[in-house]
Amino acid sequence: MGATTAKSAFGQGVLLGLPFILVIVPFGALFGVVATEAGLNLWATMGFSALVIAGAAQFTALSLMGEDAATWLVIVTALAVNLRMAMYSAALVPHLGAAPLGQRACAAYLLVDQTFAAASATYDQRPEMDLRAKLALFFGIATPIVPLWYVSSLAGALLGASIPEAWALDFALPLTFIAMLGPMLRTLAHVGAALVSIALSLAFAGLPAGVGLLLAGGAAMVTGALIETWSERRA
């Protein structure tokens, strides 16, 4: 595809990323507030957001730090929460794996739940897209999301406790995942994996932070693979 097509794909990506602003802004602001209340200074808060750029893992780490957990436990738990990024990466290899190292590194940094969900769904719908267009689409999706994550985190850190509790910014996290998960439940394997994940996450809620999520995620992947294999054999 030519440059015009790549430019068009980038514009489409930006449009796909815009709706996520509705949850990225309050989610980032909430992190800034919570990090400040947990004792992190402005530089530490912004460094956390810029380097980790994974809200669920950041909140998990802050929670454990507030409980004076050991450093190794904070790191391992945050990595467990972010284990889904490895699955996202594997799913994108057929689409972006042939890109130059620098572009793959940039895409890896920008790989968050929202960029994966929107890009993956579009790639499935438009198998005719070439590598340039796919990269342009991915970076377009990230364009309105990532900068606003930084800005909203900064705003939350600066405003801190002045944000009224009545605003209920903590709605952003569950709303984000619900909005992304719904459209992705397209097959029996997807639904089965989701149900197992939900059931085991609730069953393992009493385990140390991160452990239950890790076990539930692993069981959900196995369930999805088994159902997919069974469906293919029947077909």
Automatic annotation (TrEMBL):
It is a multi-pass membrane protein. Keywords: Cell membrane, Membrane, Transmembrane, Transmembrane helix, Transport. GO terms for cellular component: plasma membrane. It is found in: Cell membrane. One of its GO terms (biological process) is L-valine transmembrane transport. InterPro entries: Brnchd-chn_aa_trnsp_permease. The chain crosses the membrane at residues 14-35, 42-63, 69-87, 135-152, 158-181, 188-207. Belongs to the AzlC family. This is Predicted branched-chain amino acid permease (Azaleucine resistance). It comes from Palleronia salina.
